[in-house]
Structure formats: structure tokens, C-alpha cells
């Protein structure tokens, strides 16, 4: 049973949150996982999500917003259906990370943290995504794409646009 009378989240997420608040010695430790699950559930972290999470964790909404604004992987606005995150941290930077990012900007016609007019793609420049051995790398939603070149990026984006991307259901 949910710990809030009327959850704004899907039943599965509400159930997950009910469990999350019980597994940490301090309730507040569930905050970052909850924000990530909320984002997956709703597409971004809405004001209503902030309010419910604060209630669930006995925090002030301000406490939740302070954490929300700290982590760049958390969004307060909708992303595109396919969120393209290009790493420009050191390993990627020295083998063409910025070329990949610039190519994505040109190809999609959007900049950092922007969404294409049709809502299909959004773009972000991000720090290390843990794929340094296969740099330059990017992530589209939860899928990694590595050893990138502008040509490879084109093929990957074509695949997503055509519904053939790795995580297209
Ligand atoms: S520096 Fe780009 S994945 Fe680590």
C-alpha cells in the first residue's frame, strides 16, 4: 500500500518507492534513486514529483530541489524521445568528443539541453559516462554507442529516427 494517499506515479513506481524508504537507515538516502525513478516514470521531474517525494521522505521541497538542481542527469523539463548524451570528458575529448558533439548539434539542429521541434531528439554534453576505453562515446537513453565518428553518429541517429535504435521498443 502506498505511503501517500494518491500517488502521482504509476502503481509500479509507487510500490518501488514504498520499498525504497524502508531499505536505508536514513530515509533521505532514497532521494537520488527516487528522483531517477521519477524521471523514468514521468519523463522529467515535475513539481508534483518533487512534492510527493518530499512528503515520502519527510523533507522540505527545498531539500529535494537542492539535490535535483545539483545532478545534471536529472531533468526538470521534458527531453526528446531519444536523449543523446555526448561525453566530452578527457578520454573522449582527446579522440574527437567535441567533433562528435558538434556533428550532433549540426545534424539535429539543436544545442546543449535542447529538443528538436518534433520532440524526437534532445542533446546534452555530459561528463564521463564510464566508456573511456571505447572513446569517443555517447549514450542514447540507456544505450551506449562507442568508438564514434561523425559517419557512425549519422548511422546511429538514422536508426533511432527510423525506429531501429538499440532501445527502440
Ligand atoms: S571520458 Fe568519455 S566515457 Fe569516460
TrEMBL record:
InterPro entries: NuoE-like, NuoE_dom, NuoE_N, Thioredoxin-like_sf. It comes from the Bacteria. Belongs to the complex I 24 kDa subunit family. Transmembrane segments: none annotated. It comes from Terriglobus aquaticus. This is NADH-quinone oxidoreductase subunit NuoE. Pfam families: 2Fe-2S_thioredx. NCBIfam families: nuoE_fam. PANTHER family: NADH DEHYDROGENASE [UBIQUINONE] FLAVOPROTEIN 2, MITOCHONDRIAL, NADH DEHYDROGENASE UBIQUINONE FLAVOPROTEIN 2, MITOCHONDRIAL. Its cofactor is [2Fe-2S] cluster. Gene3D superfamilies: Glutaredoxin (3.40.30.10), NADH-quinone oxidoreductase subunit E (1.10.10.1590). Keywords: 2Fe-2S, Iron, Iron-sulfur, Metal-binding.
Amino acid at each position: 500500500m502506498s505511503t501517500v494517499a494518491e500517488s502521482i506515479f504509476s502503481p509500479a513506481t509507487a510500490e518501488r518507492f514504498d520499498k525504497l524508504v524502508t531499505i536505508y537507515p536514513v530515509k533521505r538516502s532514497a532521494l537520488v534513486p527516487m528522483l531517477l525513478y521519477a524521471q523514468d516514470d514521468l519523463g522529467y521531474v515535475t513539481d508534483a514529483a518533487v512534492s510527493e517525494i518530499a512528503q515520502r521522505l519527510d523533507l522540505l521541497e527545498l531539500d529535494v530541489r537542492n539535490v535535483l538542481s545539483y545532478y545534471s542527469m536529472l531533468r526538470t523539463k521534458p527531453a526528446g524521445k531519444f536523449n543523446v548524451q555526448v561525453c566530452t570528458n578527457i578520454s573522449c575529448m582527446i579522440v574527437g568528443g567535441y567533433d562528435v558533439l558538434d556533428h550532433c548539434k549540426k545534424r539535429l539542429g539543436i544545442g546543449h539541453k535542447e529538443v528538436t521541434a518534433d520532440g524526437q531528439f534532445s542533446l546534452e554534453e555530459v561528463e564521463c559516462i564510464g566508456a573511456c576505453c571505447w572513446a569517443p562515446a555517447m549514450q542514447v537513453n540507456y544505450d551506449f554507442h562507442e568508438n564514434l565518428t561523425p559517419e557512425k553518429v549519422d548511422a546511429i541517429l538514422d536508426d533511432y529516427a527510423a525506429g531501429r535504435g538499440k532501445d527502440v521498443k
